[in-house]
Amino acid sequence: MAGLVPAEVHGDERGALLSYVEGQRAALRDQVDGLTEEQAARRTTVSALSLSGLLKHAANVELNWLRLAQQTPNEQAKSDEAWADGFRLLDGETIPQVLEFWDGVAKELEGFIRSAPSLDVTFPLPEAPWFPKDTSVSVRWMLLHLVEEFARHAGHADIIRESLDGRTVM
Known about the structure:
By secondary structure, the chain is mainly alpha-helical. It is 53% helix and 4% strand. The chain has a two-stranded antiparallel sheet with strand order 1-2. Helix 3 runs parallel beside helix 4 (95-115) and helix 3 runs antiparallel to helix 5 (139-165). The protein is globular and about 45 Å long. The mean pLDDT is 91.
């Protein structure tokens, strides 16, 4: 089953958290198995969400959190006007490209986490209406947040996929 990792790989806290992130990442990614680009782009609910759009969003979210933790600029940052473009594939973008991009982000995140001196290392959150002012979070918090983010979107993806063809990841 995708997303499951042998126990010896995640016996420590870092490995366990990375394993949970990967499990939820895989639950989201697996939703496009066997679909065409057109099927994966289809909206099946009143929301604007599609499976391919959720993949793109999740990959960009992971990159954004990684760049925040690294305290470096996000090269993929979108303007407020282009925010909605992060939830749909644009002309020339494909699912394989999004998955390849996400593979690179995931590999970079794992390297960053494994090289961090401690999961207690903190980094500041940017000013935003949804973050408390002058707040920092730990690398551990970030990993737990990614589990939450991916799990929420995997649930959305389950509903969309079931609406498309009756299939779910489970």
